[in-house]
Amino acid sequence: MSFRKLDIDALDEEKYFEENTQTRTNEEISSLVNSKVHEVRQILSRGQHAQALSRALEDPPYGQDVQESKDIATQVVMEVLSSTKLSDIPTVVKSLNPEELDVLMKYLYRGMASPELYNCSVILSWHEKVIATTGLGSIVRVLTDRNTV
């Protein structure tokens, strides 16, 4: 008789297979990302950084076969972050809801992983302000979430 009621061997990281919960095709995701990029750039050209960032963080592309869409979405988020004045960062961060802040944190870590592509000083400035608002919980949620941007 086993004293365990839960099969912990089934929880082994090596045996984990991501379920395909994606309901949209890759073409639909690519189309949505491209339309979002156009919309975000229009909002950004009007100088509305908070709205542009909120729109860029909305409905991020998740999945294994959408790397190109993820790269495009990351690029547009980094454009918004780079174009925002340092003094405006706290106001923009406070205007975001908790889900958007967690998605922003995912993009910040994605940007930190590619220092040759993105300005790390900008990313670290945003990281500092997001942590001041959300606390360490945001870091934990991002690092434990299997959905990556």
UniProtKB/TrEMBL annotation:
* Keyword tags: Cytoplasm, Cytoskeleton
Q: Tell me which InterPro entries the record gives.
A: ARPC5 (IPR006789), ARPC5_sf (IPR036743)
Signal peptide positions on this chain: none
Q: Which Gene3D superfamilies match?
A: Actin-related protein 2/3 complex subunit 5
A Pfam family in this protein? P16-Arc
* Location(s) in or outside the cell: Cytoplasm, Cytoskeleton
According to its UniProt entry, the function of this protein is described as: Functions as component of the Arp2/3 complex which is involved in regulation of actin polymerization and together with an activating nucleation-promoting factor (NPF) mediates the formation of branched actin networks. Arp2/3 complex plays a critical role in the control of cell morphogenesis via the modulation of cell polarity development.
Q: Which family does it belong to?
A: Belongs to the ARPC5 family.
In Swiss-Prot or TrEMBL terms, this protein is called: Actin-related protein 2/3 complex subunit 5
Taxonomic path: Eukaryota, Fungi, Fungi incertae sedis, Zoopagomycota, Entomophthoromycotina
